[in-house]
Amino acid sequence: YWSPNGLPVCTAVNTQSTFVMEKYGQYGAVICWQDFRASADADLYAQRFDIWGNMLWASDGIGICTYYKWQTGQQIIEDGYGNIIFAWSDPRDVDQDFYVQKVSPDGVPQWEADGRLFLHEYYQRGYLSMVPDEAGGAYMAWVDQRDYQTTGYDIYATRLDGTGYWGYPAPVV
After folding, report:
1. What sections of the chain are H helices per DSSP?
2. Which segments within 7-110 are labelled E, that is strand?
3. Coil/strand/helix, residue 133
4. pLDDT digits (tens, 9 = 90+) for 136-167
5. SS3 state at 84
6. pTM for this structure?
């Protein structure tokens, strides 16, 4: 059972910080955090818990993205079929791009190591948000400045299907 003083999620060396936590299924939760165990760059790790506080993945979590550079802005949803979709911002190709990763209920990544590129353009973007589409994918929304000279920052959205692919994003506002 859960301890009133809390259960350790990750006690690996160095710092773990900035986390998000979401409900998983009817009786569990998934948490994703920035982790500095391997370098000065922030990697992303995650852990799944059952209703009794048992960790269901590897001790100290599984690596969602351990690519060098600084991963941040992580988001989590359940896809409606028991898998978990993670999304985050990542500057690995100079620009601040968005990446996604689907993980099975038992903690096995389903897409490319360190995530699948979701959005790469040559303009600033941020504030990624997502909700499940109940068909194995997600609806994604974010702010970007691709048309900054005429309209400033705009909100864009698209649907990520259950295989990790999408249509070209259309402006919302």
Report:
1. 148-151
2. 16-24, 28-35, 43-49, 62-65, 72-78, 84-93, 95-103
3. coil
4. 999 999 888 777 666 778 888 989 999 888 76
5. strand
6. 0.91
Structure tokens at 46: 């995650």
Q: Which two tokens stand for residue 86?
A: 């993670």
131 touches 137 (CB < 8 A): no
Report the amino acid identity of residue 61. Answer: G
Q: Give the CA distances from residue 96 to residues 38, 48, 122, in Å, rounded to whole numbers and listed in that order.
A: 22, 27, 9
Q: What is the pLDDT of residues 60-97, one digit of tens each?
A: 999 999 998 889 999 999 999 999 999 999 888 777 78
Handedness of CA 128, 132, 138, 140 (dihedral sign): negative
pLDDT digits (tens, 9 = 90+) for 115-131: 999 877 666 677 899 99
Contact criterion met (CB below 8 Å) for 47 and 57? yes
Contact 20, 74 (CB under 8 A): yes
CA 47, chain centre distance (Å): 12
Q: How many helices (H) and strands (E) does the chain have?
A: 1, 12
Give the type of residue at 165: Y
